[in-house]
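User: Hey, quick favor. My workstation is busy. Could you predict this chain's structure for me?
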Amino acid sequence: MMQIPQLMHEQYRQAKELIENVEDIKVYSHIDCDGICSGAILSTILDRQNKEHEIEFVNLDVLDDIELTHELTIFSDLGSGQKIDAKAQKNQKILILDHHPPLRDLDYKNNKDYTYLEINPNHHGIDGSYYVCGGGLCYFLAKRFGYDDLSWIGVLSAIGDMQNTKTGHFEGLNKIIQQDAIDGGYLEIIKSDINIYGRNTRPLFVALSYFSDVKLPITNNTNETMAILEELGIDEKHNRKTLNELTMEEKGKLFQRLMSMLTQAVPPKYIQYLPQLILGDSYTFLKEDEHSFLRDGSEFSTAMNACGRNHEEQIAMEVLKGDRFVALDELEVVSKIHRTNLAKGISSVAENDETNIIELENLQYFDGTGIAPEIVGTITGMILGYCNWKKPIIGFTQTDSDGLKVSLRCSRLLSYDGIHFGNIIREVASDVGGSGGGHAMACGAYIPIDKKYEFLEEFNNRLDGKLTK
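Assistant: No problem, here it is.
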């Protein structure tokens, strides 16, 4: 099992000392599941240490040249890719716990008249896309304080950040967090389960219709999924099952049918990766009510994202910190609103005969005017099932009168081609006067509104020869 490198251990010792020796603390964290989990872990540490603190959940575009007004400012799940210390003053203290590609190297802290401590796995040769995320880094700080009981939130953050997408399992430092959560009685795993969202709450024929990494006859087609499940003898017209109700034998039949469909739909070079599109570990949080949507890791993480996308991070944080009464009711309301907003966004782009998706040689895009910037990334991912899976898809929406939010998503199969779209989007956005970054398969940027077509042209050119036709 991968271990935390010695230098990182030392950084965590310094981080603990920083927190213990200050009274005036501000935390900035990202608005997605990983960021909210990161914020909840840090806030719990600070509560238990009796440290007064403010916490603010923000988008990345507000961080460049931010005013630092506290003795210690902590940035979690963000900060490494932004100019957060441009206005740092003498004797101020900055702590970054981020897993995104860093702008600054390990020596950056030297010869500063303020304290700068950045804990980023990429500095230690550990890939932040798959081996540890923001919430995981915050959990290791909690563990340094002896708070191993927060391990389950570290697992939830990794699920939300899709750290297991490449293999269907957690790897690297995530395995340590996962084991802590299992040992603590918080987590149960089913290895290599059929990896379909809504295992407890959606009828299987509905859940299957959302399969979108590769467009199949079942994608967005519940009639087809019902017919296949009935043909396989694992679902009946008057007795619809969820995935959780299938026997292992029935799951085996379903796996074989999905493999058969996928094998016919993809170029031969991808066939070795197909099982990883279908199978993956499933995560059950044992302390949650058996009938609650919080019991399943994927559904819990989606609810956290729903809060972030609707400016209700506080509700999510209360739930993570233990409120299963008032905040949980509020969480259900926000989740419902979120689902409605997603459905409207998808239908405005793709759910008609004339889709608004425009295809270029190496990519495809849509104009998402009217879609909130907070959910354009989620919608971009969901629209994968309506378009050409062999190319990445980019969604645009306006942030203000002269700014555009850009979100990119792609099929998991493209990650096996070794393309890191997060690095490309950062470079192209920078070339047109914007900023961006993110992971290999899910990333985003903010660019000036009049640079949209220049951005598209350069991005398209960058991908020449890189994609499988």
